Amino acid sequence: MTQATVRLTVAQALVRYLAALRAEVVQPDGKTEVLPYCGGVFAIFGHGNVAGLGEALESVKDQLPTFRAHNEQGMANAAVAFGKANFRQRMMAASSSIGPGATNMLTSAAMAHVARLPLLLLPGDVFVSRLPDPVLQQVEGFEQGDVSANDCFRPVTRYFDRITTPEQLLVALPRAIQVMTDPAQCGPVCLALPQDVQTFAWDWPESFFHPPLIRFRRPPAEARELDEAVQRLKTAKKPLLVAGGGVLYSQAWDALRDFAEAHGVPVAESQAGKGALPWDHPLNVGSIGVTGSTAANDLARDCDLVLAVGTRLQDFTTGSHALFSHADVLSLNVQPFDAGKKRGQPLVADARTGLRQLSTALPSWRADSAWTDRAQDLAASWVERVDVLTRHVPKDVRPYDAEVIGAVRESATDAGLDSARHDLVVCAAGTLPAELHKLWRSGLPGNYHMDYAYSTMGYEVAGGLGAKMARPEREVIVIVGDGSYMMLHAELATSVLLGRKIIIVLLDNRGYGCIERLQVKCGGASFNNMLDDCIPEGGAPSDIDFAMNARSLGAEAVHVKDVEELRREMVRARAATKSQMLVIDTTHHRTTADGGAWWEVAVPQVSARPGVTEAHAGYLQAKRRQRQ
């Protein structure tokens, strides 16, 4: 029997397949919908993709939207944020020309790789025919003729392929989707598309364009590992559960709450896991680690077992492996690589399935009542302390991050909204991740959107755009420092162009204040971080009008004089329909001293500066607490 075929170019076949993909998506309210798996394609066209992929995308624009961006890294960051805000159940693609357009997306690929997030990269590539070599923007390999700039994507993607013949797409494209939808392997994929191959025609099987519905797997724990985990938990008197991003990606928040309540186990949250349990739940002891709350870190130092659920156990979570000094680690993770970290006991399974398996197997086990009572007391005290830190605004001094966070939160109350359930906050780098991890209140899973896996400076504005595209019903608030904003902010103009309103609150401390503090703490001199300290002979002081910059990109913007005005302007910004920028001058010298844990930053063994020598002695003393 002859198989029905349709004649299309490689590019046309690729976009037709993407447009046909559907996924079974669980929303935060528990409802299940069948939605397009690919939310669209960000594209900046050039000679490597405009004639082939560009023509194909135009032909399906009603089924697969194409979005114009202003910077390749920015658009790929937005695509990553879209996947994160959808709990990895949907993704977006990003297409560039060859050369600098492609390599601009390398940082985004690395960010998605570290954070285990889906991203489909479709960079143009050089001619497979080799006849016009070297083509404009081609990076030539003197020893390897089949290498191009796109090979740089190999170490920062989970799957890489170069499509050199049409029929290769029949295998490569479904395989790329398989990687992004696998709970353990999820990450960025790259299909490099030589510009001539994009235009090659072939007779494609019609069946190729009817892919099966994507349903996400929830692998259970293996019986032996489950039994070993159960036996270990039965001996625990003072357990602490650390919730990571895997709890959110598994939509395991109900299972997490049920487990904590049934067994009296306090829950601390990593940066990626924050929001897995509502901020005001009696067993939520707040953020863990270097940016952790007093409550969570006090318990971490005293617990006898850490149940790490869906976390990579990054150094900020573990205090560079010195925080859990008296506890064993039991890691429930769908990825064996992560489950085996810190020489812990692995339990390889989906977070939601694994938590329920554990709870079922432990019907009568509970943590010691004194431990549970202590955790609840600490949690309640921390809630009160956050109120003090975010609502007290001293006069006649520049505000710091906590006071700005409080004004943003309270503006929701002024507008008749519940900030914890309505606002989706986006951030990535500098001091703000520490302050937000401790002080932001999230009442819904996904309303805390932080890139602190790769901590990508410049992610914030583009990340806010991607989050808004994924969650248009939320007020997306980007909180960003001046240094990170200066790295990459062009997608503010894209948000205006696309009609996706975001609110940016920019804290201007005139430089890289976070790193300057670290520099001085390590005994160094303040050097090359704060703008006023970086003026060479013949130079001039930096005088950046961020509000004017935002207005030049099409947003509405104001520079507020203090926290009270910020709160009032936030109410106005919430009611607006166009993207907003609110700028406030802040200090980097004041931070929230409560909480925190040691973070290993290597200090020079010898130096002419006495401060460095002193800092190195303290560094060696702290390292003694590290588990080997």
From TrEMBL:
Domain Thiamine pyrophosphate enzyme central: 226-358
Hydrolase recorded as keyword: yes
PROSITE patterns per UniProt: TPP_ENZYMES
Domain Thiamine pyrophosphate enzyme N-terminal TPP-binding: 42-137
InterPro entries reported in the protein's UniProt record: DHS-like_NAD/FAD-binding_dom, Myo_inos_IolD, THDP-binding, Thiamin_PyroP_enz_cen_dom, Thiamin_PyroP_enz_TPP-bd_dom, TPP-bd_CS, TPP_enz, TPP_enzyme_TPP-bd
Sequence ranges assigned to domain Thiamine pyrophosphate enzyme TPP-binding in this UniProt record: 429-583
EC code(s) of this entry: 3.7.1.22
Keyword Hydrolase among UniProt keywords: yes
Enzyme class, UniProt record, top EC level: hydrolase
Keyword terms, alphabetized: Hydrolase, Thiamine pyrophosphate
Signal peptide: none
Pfam families, sorted: TPP_enzyme_C, TPP_enzyme_M, TPP_enzyme_N
Entry's family note: Belongs to the TPP enzyme family.
Name of the protein in question: 3D-(3,5/4)-trihydroxycyclohexane-1,2-dione acylhydrolase (Decyclizing)
Species: Pseudaquabacterium rugosum
Organism taxonomic ancestry: Bacteria, Pseudomonadati, Pseudomonadota, Betaproteobacteria, Burkholderiales
Gene coding for it: iolD
